[in-house]
Design brief:
Layout lengths: L2 E2 L2 H10 L2 E8 L2 E8 L1 E3 L6 E7 L4 H7 L3 E12 L7 H4 L5 E11 L2 E3 L2 H16 L13 H9 L1 E7 L2 E7 L6 H14 L3 H8 L1
Antiparallel strand pairs: 1-10, 2-3, 2-6, 4-5, 5-9, 6-7, 7-10, 8-9
């Protein structure tokens, strides 16, 4: 009921919420880090690209090439039973949580190439700056400063081998209760991103 399989919808969530939890299992056990990713759609499921600090302990696990899990968290919101009109009928309601998320799996590749990393940073920055009135670009910083920063990071690429999503937006409730959640979110002015997801 909650499973989302449309690739364009999954890709849209990744693009809208690029800061994801990267999870690996290596010699040091399980490691998780929040990493901003860029999505490339040139392959069947797409490719994720990012960078991280050369001193990050997760880099060892990434270099081992074992499968990585990347979790993208979209809109989320607590749902009170008070929003359900059906509560008045029998009282058989409980709190829950609405959310949207995407899980991606793939085998990472590490790139120590400065040109590759610079291109990834330029792309990520441009993606987030392009809507600003005066966009900042990496080239706005002194070139020697950028060169020093690039020495401290490495790039990673994860060709997506599997992708799945889960959208829990009250679709398991009766229409009157689902509308009650929408009305409650709107009236209490909470979780605008979840309200948009439910109305969309």
């Amino acid at each position: 009921m909650f499973r989302e399989e449309r690739l364009d919808v999954l890709h849209d969530l990744i693009t809208a919420h690029p800061l994801a939890t990267l999870i690996t299992a290596g010699g040091d056990g399980l490691i998780a880090n929040l990493i901003p990713f860029t999505l490339h759609v040139g392959r069947e499921h797409g490719i994720l690209r990012a960078h991280l600090a050369r001193r990050n302990k997760q880099l060892d696990a990434l270099r081992e090439g074992a499968e990585a899990l990347v979790v993208f968290q979209g809109p989320e919101c607590y749902v009170t039973p008070s929003w359900y009109p059906s509560k008045a009928e029998n009282g058989k309601v409980v709190p829950t949580w609405n959310f949207a998320m995407v899980q991606v799996r793939g085998r990472p590749q590490v790139f120590d190439d400065v040109t590759w990393v610079r291109e990834q940073i330029d792309e990520m920055t441009n993606n987030h700056e392009r809507h600003r009135e005066h966009p900042w670009t990496v080239s706005d910083a002194p070139e020697d400063f950028i060169a020093a920063q690039l020495k401290a990071i490495v790039g990673i690429e994860i060709p997506i081998s599997s992708i799945e999503g889960k959208w829990k937006v009250s679709q398991n409730r009766m229409p009157v209760d689902r509308q009650g959640v929408i009305d409650g979110l709107r009236a209490e002015q909470v979780c605008p991103s979840m309200l948009a997801a439910m109305e969309g």
